[in-house]
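At this stage, I needed to go through a protein sequence along with its fold in token form, as given directly below:
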Amino acid sequence: MKKRLYFLLLISSFGLAQTKSIILGRPTATSVTASILFDQNVQYFLEYGTLSGSYPNVTTVYNNALNVADEIDLINLSPNSQYYYRMQFKLVGATSYSVTQEYKFHTQRAPGENFTFTVESDEHLYDIKGNRSMYQVTLANEAADNPDFMLSLGDIFGDDHTPLTTTSSDMDALHKDYRQYLGQICHSIPFYVCLGNHEGENDYFLNPNGVYTTAANPLPAAPNGIGVWGTLWRKYYYPNPFPNSFYSGNTTVENYGIDTPENYYSWTWGDALFVVLDVYRTEIAPGSTPADPGKPNNWDWTLGRTQYDWMRSVLENSTANHKFVFAHHSRGQGRGGVVWAPGYEWGGMQNNQYKFDQYRPGWGKPIQKVFEDTGVDVFFQGHDHMFAKEQLNGVVYQEVPMPSDITYTIGYTANATAYTDPAVDPTCSRLDGTGHIRVNVTPNCVTVDYVKAYIPGTNGSAGHNNGEIGYSYTLGTCTLDTNQTQTQNDFLAYPNPANNNLYLSFKDSSTEPSGVIRNALGQIVLKVNATVIDTSSLANGFYFLEIDGVTKSKKIIIKH
């Protein structure tokens, strides 16, 4: 069995141990950013190319002061290409360089290309919930998946646990500490941060008037508080996307040196759209009395109009075959997935009454409805420290487990009842354990795997193997396995999104199709008996096209 343990790289040079970390971020079609940190004063350069062991491209030589994070942009790269690189470095004043092992990364995949990405959430290395040895096993498992990139859905840094006493120096240490682990694999796997509730970058910590302040609980107002410090240190150590020709995102320039906060963003990769949301930065804080200290409730939880309009535009204007949305939680409070989705800004309901237009006048539709109408495949969320898969009107709600829980049970014990019981709905699942989510993407198929992590000999590991698959499911038109037969040729459906007409093309031109189109609720809305389908009567949104004799349905989008 392959050992999947990675350790912090210590390179001995001139009798001195030099600890370094390289974190890749912001990959595009033609560039990638490397965040580089040393614990000593060094000189270094990067050399890179598209063939393993050959590095025709060389950067300038950079001087790096100890514990200062540099950002180096490799530009003018070739799209849809595998790159290999290494670093040469030496102590300032030394005559010869040490050389790292070879690392790698991939530029943006072209449509039609297969790729893999991974997702983790709620590392909690800052408290007793997160075990560091356990986390290293999960990281090694993710590296073995060879993903193009990875995402964390938040609760990484723990900035808000002691908001009255935490200092900027404390937050520097919290953010820097995580690098020694992430640097074990992210020299070759670009990393994306999605903000959680424990990052400290919440509205009530960012407000310059100290909204979350009472006589009994006097939190410092911005800029002297954890909201500003958390943002600045996160941006300093981790290169998250900002709006440019490749990434869309938050263009708001914030005060206190923050500039654009790099907190929500989107991009395309292959045949997939990725949308990362921030559900905490723009809450509507209700007040600051002792009885109402300013933490949001219900309708107070909001993306804010700016982020909402951006999200809706990105989803509605994308023609990607697959659409994935990521956030720490559907709303900032509560547990569970679909149990919370129908309510307030997310679903528009309050006490079984539709209140969205009253509380969000002019917005148009709740977030869940936007997901339904634009064909979002999966909404990935964290927060609850377990694995759960649910569905709501065609949208999968995927709860991502902890990667660092050595008990294997923390989240499941506390939160399992907040998710749908598989005995009630067999399409759903809820599981304990520790690990990450692996997503394999092809042009027409998505495979989602729960990859479990175990340390042999720990309580709960008996009978299990590290890297085993706890649960797996597919979305879209996936390749038939060897035990399946297909009684009718597969087909193409185009254009997708469609307006008034949808066209079918079969390998056998004589094929006379017979089938149906179903809406997101599974109801038949149109019968199919020709290769040209009149879709003018269908409302905007996504549907499933089923052809008799074809094993898998196809998702289609109608956009008039």
